[in-house]
Inverse folding.
C-alpha cells in the first residue's frame, strides 16, 4: 500500500524548520566551538569565537536570527517510491518546488521573526529582490521505502561564494589541491567552520557531494581517537591538521582553529579524472533533518539549556579603547594600531554592493550624493528587519572584499575615515587605505544578533528602494571591532601576506 503524505505537512514542516534553524545552531556545532574556544591561545581569535558563542546563546533565547544573512533555502528530499503525495484541501498535488516555495514565503515573512530576503531575480539584469526569499533550491531523489527524508538548510552567501571546483589528474594530490585553495578563499566564509569535500562522479555530482557533506555531524575528535578506516577518513585527518596549521584562524585573525571538521564524500568517476569540489559552511551553521511518515508535520525540540551553560549573555572587552564616532577625526584614526580593539559609539552609515555602485555612478556623473560621507564611517551591512523593541534586527558585517572596487573613489572623493566589515581586503585597497590615512575595522561575522544589541537607533537615509541594501544611519553604543588595517597600511590578516605584495 502506498504511504500517503500530505503536502501541507511538508510545507508546515519546512516553514517550522526554517524558523527553528534561523536561531538555533546544531548542538554539535556549539560543542565544537566551545572546544575551539577552550583550546585557543591567540587573543583576537579567542575573542571572536567567544562572540560567536555569546551570539548563539542570545539568538536561541531571543528566537532571532544568528546572522543577518538568513540564507538561501536549500531543500534535499529523499522520497520513497511507495510515497503518494496528497493535499488536505482535496486539490491535486502540486510540484514539490511550489510546496517548498510556499514554506519559504511563510517562514521568511513571519511577523514574529522576519528573516532577511536575499534572493534576486534576473541575475544578469535588474537583480530585483523577490522580497520573500523564494525560490528555494530543491534537490529530489527517489529512494526505496515509504517515507520522505528531508534535509533543510539556510546557506549564507559568505560560504557558498567560496566554493571551489577542479578536475585533477589521477596522479595529482587531492590534499595538496585543497590546501592550496585555503589562502585564496580568505576569511569571508567566517571560519572556524566545516569544509565539505566532494570527490568523484561528474562535476555537478562532486559539487552536490561537497554541499551535502558539510551537514554531517562533527566527529573529527572521535575519528582521531579510533583512527581512519579508509582513504577518505585518512584524508579528513590529514586535511584537518594541515588546514589548521596554516594559521588562518577564527575570522582570519590567526590562531589554532580554521576548521572544526573536514567532511569527505566520494563517488565512482571516470578513470582519467578526479573531479573535486570544496564547499565551506560558516559560523552561521543552520540545518536540520526530519522524516515524514504520514502522521503529520515534523516537530523540533529545543536543545537542552546545558548546551550554553557558562556562556555569558554579553561580550566584555575590558582592554578596548572607547571611540566617539561623532567626534572622530583623521588624527584619531591615525593613532589606531593594527590588532587594537575598539568600542564604537555614535553615528555610522551603512552601505553594501548596490549602494556603493549607485554612489560611485553618481560621482562619475558629477551629481550630488544623497548623503554627505565626509568624516563618516561606513558599515558594510544589510540588516534584518526589526521587530517590536528592536532598533534594528540582527546586523552583522558582510564580506568587505566585494566593496574593494569602490574604495578608491569613496576615500578620495568623499572623505570617508573608516570602514567596518569582515574578512581581508585586497592589496590595492590596503594601499588606498594607507594613501588616504583611513582604516578598516573588522567586526565578527556570525555574531549578528549580539552586534545588533549595540545599535540603539536606525533610520533609512538613502536608496530606500534597495530594501536591506538601502543606506541606513545607525546610532551605536560600544560596538566591538578590531583594527584590521590601520592608517599605515598594516594588516592583521597575516595569511594574505604570502600571496599579496605589501602596500606601497
Amino acid at each position: 500500500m502506498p504511504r500517503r503524505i500530505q503536502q501541507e505537512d511538508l510545507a508546515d514542516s519546512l516553514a517550522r524548520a526554517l524558523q527553528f534553524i534561523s536561531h538555533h545552531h546544531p548542538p554539535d556545532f556549539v560543542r565544537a566551538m566551545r572546544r575551539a574556544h577552550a583550546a585557543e591561545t591567540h587573543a583576537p581569535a579567542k575573542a571572536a569565537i567567544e562572540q560567536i558563542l555569546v551570539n548563539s546563546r542570545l539568538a536561541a533565547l531571543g528566537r532571532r536570527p544568528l546572522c543577518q544573512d538568513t540564507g538561501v533555502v536549500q531543500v534535499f528530499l529523499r522520497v520513497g517510491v511507495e510515497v503518494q503525495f496528497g493535499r488536505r484541501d482535496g486539490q491535486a498535488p502540486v510540484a514539490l518546488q511550489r510546496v517548498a516555495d510556499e514554506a519559504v514565503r511563510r517562514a521568511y515573512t513571519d511577523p514574529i521573526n522576519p528573516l532577511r530576503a536575499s534572493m534576486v531575480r534576473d541575475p544578469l539584469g535588474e537583480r530585483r529582490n523577490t522580497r520573500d526569499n523564494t525560490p528555494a533550491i530543491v534537490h529530489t531523489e527517489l529512494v526505496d521505502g515509504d517515507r520522505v527524508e528531508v534535509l533543510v538548510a539556510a546557506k549564507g552567501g559568505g560560504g557558498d561564494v567560496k566554493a571551489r571546483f577542479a578536475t585533477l589528474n589521477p596522479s595529482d594530490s587531492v590534499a595538496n589541491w585543497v590546501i592550496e585553495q585555503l589562502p585564496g578563499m580568505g576569511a569571508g566564509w567566517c571560519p572556524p567552520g566545516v569544509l565539505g569535500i566532494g570527490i568523484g562522479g561528474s562535476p555537478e555530482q562532486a559539487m552536490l557531494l561537497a554541499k551535502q557533506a558539510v551537514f554531517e555531524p562533527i566527529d573529527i575528535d572521535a575519528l582521531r581517537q579510533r583512527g581512519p578506516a579508509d582513504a577518505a577518513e585518512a584524508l579528513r585527518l590529514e586535511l584537518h591538521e594541515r588546514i589548521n596549521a596554516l594559521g588562518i584562524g577564527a575570522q582570519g585573525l590567526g590562531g589554532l582553529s580554521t576548521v572544526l571538521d573536514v567532511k569527505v564524500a566520494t563517488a565512482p568517476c571516470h578513470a582519467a579524472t578526479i573531479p573535486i569540489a570544496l564547499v565551506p559552511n560558516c559560523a552561521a551553521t543552520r540545518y536540520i533533518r526530519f522524516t515524514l511518515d504520514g502522521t503529520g508535520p515534523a516537530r523540533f525540540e529545543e536543545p537542552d539549556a546545558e548546551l550554553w551553560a557558562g556562556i555569558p549573555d554579553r561580550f566584555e572587552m575590558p582592554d578596548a579603547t572607547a571611540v566617539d564616532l561623532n567626534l572622530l577625526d583623521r588624527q584619531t584614526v591615525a593613532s589606531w594600531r593594527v590588532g587594537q580593539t575598539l568600542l564604537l559609539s555614535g553615528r555610522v552609515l551603512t552601505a553594501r554592493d548596490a549602494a556603493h555602485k549607485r554612489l560611485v555612478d553618481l560621482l562619475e556623473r558629477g551629481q550630488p550624493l544623497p548623503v554627505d560621507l565626509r568624516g563618516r564611517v561606513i558599515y558594510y551591512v544589510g540588516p534584518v528587519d526589526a521587530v517590536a523593541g528592536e532598533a534594528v534586527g540582527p546586523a552583522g558585517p558582510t564580506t568587505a572584499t566585494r566593496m574593494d572596487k569602490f574604495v578608491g573613489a569613496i576615500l578620495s572623493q568623499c572623505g570617508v575615515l573608516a570602514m567596518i566589515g569582515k574578512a581581508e581586503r585586497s592589496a590595492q585597497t590596503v594601499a588606498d587605505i594607507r594613501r588616504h590615512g583611513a582604516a578598516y575595522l573588522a567586526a565578527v561575522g556570525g555574531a549578528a544578533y549580539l552586534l545588533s544589541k549595540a545599535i540603539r537607533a536606525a533610520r533609512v537615509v538613502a536608496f530606500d528602494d534597495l530594501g536591506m541594501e538601502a543606506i541606513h544611519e545607525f546610532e551605536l553604543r560600544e560596538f566591538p571591532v578590531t583594527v584590521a588595517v590601520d592608517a599605515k597600511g598594516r594588516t592583521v590578516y597575516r595569511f594574505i601576506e604570502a600571496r599579496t605584495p605589501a602596500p606601497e
Observations:
- Confidence is low (pLDDT under 50) at residues 498-504.
- Residues 374 and 415 are 4 Å apart (CA to CA).
- The radius of gyration is 23 Å.
